[in-house]
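Hi everyone, sorry if this is the wrong subforum. Our group has a chain we'd like a structural model of before ordering constructs, and none of us has done structure prediction before. Sequence below.
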Amino acid sequence: MEDLKFTKWVALWGNATSITDRTESIYAKDITLRYPINICFSGSKLRFRFSNLTGTEPVKITRAFINYKGKNLLITKNNSEEISINPGCEVESDEVHVFVSKGDSLSISLYLADYTQMNAGTFISGPLSKGFYAYGDYAEADELPLDKTRKTNWFYFLNTIDVFTESKNYALVCFGDSITAQSWPDYLTLRTQKENFENVSIIRRAVSGTRILRQYDCITYQAYGLKGAIRFPIELNVAGAEAVIIQHGINDIIHPVGVEVNPFRPWSDMPTCADLIKGVQEFYIAYARKLGLKVWSGTLLPILGWRTYNSDRDLLRNEFNDWLRTSKDFDGCVDFDLAVRDKDNVLSFADGFDSGDHLHPSEIAYNAMAMAVPESLLTLKTR
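Answer:
Right subforum, don't worry. Here is the predicted structure as tokens:
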């Protein structure tokens, strides 16, 4: 019998799904994927969404297991242990009845017996975002064999985990590109634990290289993913979501270089500030409002020193940031730029906050971004 205090589904973990990096090898066979997950809410049952959104062939997960407190629980779809996902589709598992406790961890293991197109997944990083793969069938093994196992930050097929939990719990969605695919959502999760914000989960929906207005179809840049108009409605499918932070747009600004430099990155792709604003309003804000979500902007970070930097790009970034900070279209702004920039030279990162490429923050800067999220977003009342 279920605990009567558990009344609704809320996402406890989530990731985007995109086209994986196009390399010489895009198939795997007889391989186990394992992903450790922290449990942020107690609940009485779990369900899982698996995605082949960007695949061009069917994917068959031979077996999938939850390992929780030393016990393996089979994940099924329509009572079948084999989970099939057609290309361009996502599927939701049957409910798995298991009481889970906040603060515990579990792992998800997927075994792929047959040749499988590894075309649907996303690279994420951070202190809580670590996966493994092992050659062979070890989905039910307590430990993966050291000599056949490697770490990975590519998360294939596993898209979302929902828990049936208390009505006071909700999800905060972090939507963006590589800045968000990297560490700050993990540090925000750690902050919620440390500061006892007990009713919010941090759901990452981010793909490196993505733009608001454009996407690439060539294999060189396919991993940069889908444009905003396509991505956002798919990635806002988050149970229990109450708000979204949107930190997106820097790639629209830094990518164009001209066809004489790169045939896939013409100057015609360079947006105006009005183009970026219109994209955010039409693709993001309007859709999020239909879902009843609060919408917070996230300012774009410094780019001084980045390999395509010029003053015109920075003028565009600052003009867009001015709108992100002041527009009444949003419920508020998380000023990430202010959190990481140098107070004396506002065009650059603060000392120690640059990862070294003058675009992506360092780990301490990602933690500063997490600390910039206001408490009001971590203490929302649920509908």
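For your construct planning: The CA atoms of residues 27 and 117 lie 5 Å apart. The longest strand covers residues 43-51.
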